[in-house]
Design goal:
Length: 516
């Protein structure tokens, strides 16, 4: 572990297998299964009551496993508190504890039906069909029931996960409940950070029911841990500490190699992102004709004029741009175009951290990426969006983002960030981070260039590195996403152009209204 603390329950993200092992450990140490279910269901009940004031009729879907058991206890508690409760139980079989709860709830006079229609008059539906024990696809009657519930306009709260969502990959197994709220139990599951699951999760919150950290750490070893870079955690690590006595070159010197006549603005946006990272010095190698414009927008940067191709791309790098000892990191890519073909090979030999984005990645895609990356002796960070990722690794046999980054990071000895609604990052040491929030407002030209600059500026500063490149990348991705969220809250989604985004970066570090 690094010097910062990720040792709190909310920073762990587990697979179904890990969750089951943690649960088993707790049971083996003596916690009765029924007692734990009682505790969890009590917390779920209270959260439901707080969330839905004024509601009187609640429909509860009870599945065969312990997810259904939780739901049956919630049904009992709501009934005892005076709510009008109806239980829909589509499958007759069930685990012993679930069956026991159902028998008791029935004895209290609660309706248990296998006719979904009886829930249509409810004001809220609680989905306890399946949790992390779901293994097979939904089909037939069950799939039809899920589709019907999704068509109703009744708010749905899913217990643990929306039923039908794969706990690890976030895939829809046949069909899935589209929840309005999901109460994730105990520890965050991987599915919450997979783009495919997002339309089904509604508003996800964690119900912390007091799993001891020691039980989590006993199961989730450092090599397999997936961590969640919350806004608070990122903010606690920013700005990167500066000694009282220092000078600009001690605060990191970043070289950005970017731009073309066609994509002139991308260099400015990367430069502005780097500016906000607090890096000591920025040098920019760009086509010579862009210099007057760059000086206007980034007066603090050193501009290295590069000879141009007839199309206005960088034709070659002047020697000052390859004197690597001058720099602490080099960022390559925004707006280069594929005309800058010969550029990448010499840069790949740079004995300093290299950050590749955009056309830097597209150029790499033409040169056997895995082998090329493996031969580098210094940190390499790739920041593709899913399209760039596919071009780089077209034959990868993995469906979900988290597995993709982990697989490629290992095979290429690099750090990979796949950008999306939920971004994931893995390093060659298998350190993995997920980013819990973002905004579709960031899906706009230039937003990636800002991230490249921001990330590269952080990497240049963190030399000699106290934080791993993977952690730094996670911090940058969260910082970028949170600035986008802040900008969209204050300016609407329409206001989050890339330039405006750069103006919110400092605000995120200073602000305290985002407590996630
Ligand atoms: N992890 C924990 O510490 C706790 C877990 N609890 C609850 O327990 C849940 C996990 O319980 P389970 O392991 O019983 O799993 P589930 O409740 O998710 O259900 C698994 C059951 O469904 C069956 N099944 C799976 N796919 C099916 C399909 N497509 N069609 C029909 N049947 C199918 C399985 O054979 C199994 O019997 C959690 O999601 C959570 O709600 C809580 O009760 C208490 C604490
Ligand atoms: K569920």
């Amino acid at each position: 572990m690094n010097h910062y603390s990720t040792s709190s329950i909310e920073h762990f993200v587990v697979s179904a297998r890990q969750m089951a092992a943690i649960e088993q450990r707790i049971f083996d140490l003596g916690m009765p299964v029924a007692a734990l279910m009682e505790k969890v269901a009590g917390l779920i009940t209270q959260r439901l009551i707080d969330l839905f004031k004024g509601v009187s009729k609640v429909g509860i879907i009870v599945g065969p496993g312990h997810n259904g058991g939780d739901a049956a206890v919630v049904a009992r508690e709501l009934h005892l508190k005076g709510y009008n409760v109806a239980i829909y139980r589509p499958l007759n079989k069930g685990k012993e504890l679930t069956q026991a709860h159902l028998d008791y709830v029935k004895s209290l006079g609660v309706t248990i039906t296998n006719h979904l229609g009886e829930l249509e008059s409810c004001e809220v539906i609680v989905d306890g069909l399946f949790g992390f024990g779901m293994t097979r696809s939904l089909d037939g009657e069950l799939a039809n029931a899920v589709k019907t519930i999704n068509q109703w306009s009744i708010p749905v709260v899913s217990i643990d996960l929306p039923s039908g969502i794969h706990t690890d990959t976030g895939e829809v197994l046949g069909s899935a409940i589209a929840a309005d709220y999901t109460f994730c139990l105990g520890l965050w599951k991987l599915a919450f950070f997979q783009d495919t699951a997002l339309p089904y999760l509604g508003k996800p919150t964690l119900i912390d029911f007091g799993i001891p950290l020691a039980d989590v750490e006993a199961v989730v070893k450092e090599s397999t841990v997936v961590k969640r870079m919350s806004a608070n955690l990122a903010r606690s690590l920013l700005p990167l500490p500066r000694p009282l006595v220092t000078h600009k070159y001690k605060q990191g010197h970043l070289l950005i190699i970017a731009g073309s006549y066609q994509y002139a603005g991308s260099v400015i946006l990367a430069g502005l992102g780097a500016r906000k990272s607090g890096v000591g010095m920025v040098s920019i190698a760009a086509p010579a004709s862009l210099k007057p414009m760059l000086v206007t927008h980034l007066p603090e940067a050193l501009i290295i004029d590069c000879p141009e191709t007839t199309e206005g791309a960088i034709a070659e790098l002047p020697s000052v741009a390859t004197q690597w000892e001058k720099y602490n990191a080099v960022a390559v890519g925004p707006g280069l175009t594929l005309d800058a073909q010969s550029l990448l090979s010499p840069i790949l030999d740079a004995p300093i951290p290299l950050i590749l984005d955009a056309d830097g990645l597209n150029l790499l895609a033409q040169m056997n990426p895995e082998k090329t990356l493996k031969s580098r002796h210094q940190t390499t960070i790739l920041t593709p969006h899913p399209g760039e990722f596919r071009r780089l690794f077209p034959n990868l046999d993995a469906t979900d983002t988290i597995t993709k980054v982990q697989t490629v990071a290992k095979a290429s000895n690099s750090c990979i960030l796949i950008k999306g609604a939920r971004s994931a990052i893995a390093g060659n040491n298998q350190e993995t981070w997920v980013i819990p929030e973002s905004t579709p407002a960031l899906a706009r030209g230039g937003s990636g260039d800002v991230l490249t600059g921001l990330l590269s500026g952080l990497v240049a500063q963190s030399h000699p590195q106290k934080l791993s490149p993977t952690t730094i990348t996670a911090i940058a991705a969260t910082w970028h996403a949170q600035a986008g969220i802040m900008a969209s809250q204050q300016q609407s989604e329409l206001g989050v152009d890339a330039f405006t985004l750069t103006q919110y970066l400092t605000q995120f570090v200073m602000g305290n209204q985002f407590d996630t």
